Amino acid sequence: xxxxxxxxxxxxxxxxxxxxxxxxxxxxxxxxxxxxxxxxxxxxxxxxxxxxxxxxxxxxxxxxxxxxxxxxxxxxxxxxxxxxxxxxxxxxxxxxxxxxxxxxxxxxxxxxxxxxxxxxxxxxxxxxxxxxxxxxxxxxxxxxxxxxxxxxxxxxxxxxxxxxxxxxxxxxxxxxxxxxxxxxxxxxxxxxxxxxxxxxxxxxxxxxxxxxxxxxxxxxxxxxxxxxxxxxxxxxxxxxxxxxxxxxxxxxxxxxxxxxxxxxxxxxxxxxxxxxxxxxxxxxxxxxxxxxxxxxxxxxxxxxxxxxxxxxxxxxxxxxxxxxx
Length: 325
Prior knowledge:
Blueprint: H1 21-44, E1 52-55, E2 61-64, H2 75-104, H3 108-130, H4 139-163, H5 165-168, H6 176-203, H7 217-238, H8 243-271, H9 278-304
Antiparallel strand pairs: 1-2
Helix pairs in contact: 1-2, 1-4, 2-3, 2-8, 3-4, 3-8, 6-7, 6-9, 7-8, 8-9
């Protein structure tokens, strides 16, 4: 069927996303499939004798799950990991697939959502591969997911950066709200993770939640990578540097997904027999829900100013004989 001449656009006017779309498509397809397999196995496998008590090398007594994929983790961590698998399966993977399809079709906003979604998978599977949970039979799968998420994230970030942050985030894009949320997020991370670590360093004791694990991976990642990134994004945004928005968007979706993560983890941990006081249950839930709602509002405000589709930079006219166009 022939296209009516009015509906044709010159090559330079076609609105298409920049960058290596096909490699990203394959990376994201691989992530969706492997993450689905890992999440289902984490939720379904329940073999094993059940919980038992064990002494750690530091002389602490901890309860080990003893059942399922996370049988060598503490009851607390195993339940939290299963909750993470649930959120990944129900929210993370559909979000990744939808954003990938939207970006493939030329949607700039979908590309930004894809960047944030890949940030979530990178965050989760970096932890699984590098020691946030005990070694289990899916370790190599976690390594592949970590690697795939990392390189897909870099490719999408580079593709969006090549489009030009100034064109993605025009001058009218809000500054104060996004910057304030970035700074607030940094403060929250410093207080929540930094306080017990400083206390442990001063007293010479291991952090209370360390259990049988060798290090606090989540705290290290949040304090070494996420916290500086939020501060950097906030500073750039206040300076009217559009690169700050690109960094912020990659973090906002992670903040949004923290709310269902914390809620699901708390529920499954309670069902597994972990005891919490009422403030320990309500406090984190309310805090992370408020943070997630603020992130939703800020992300929506930013995306409203982003062009729906991206256009390739206009090419300079070729010079004719004698130098004239």
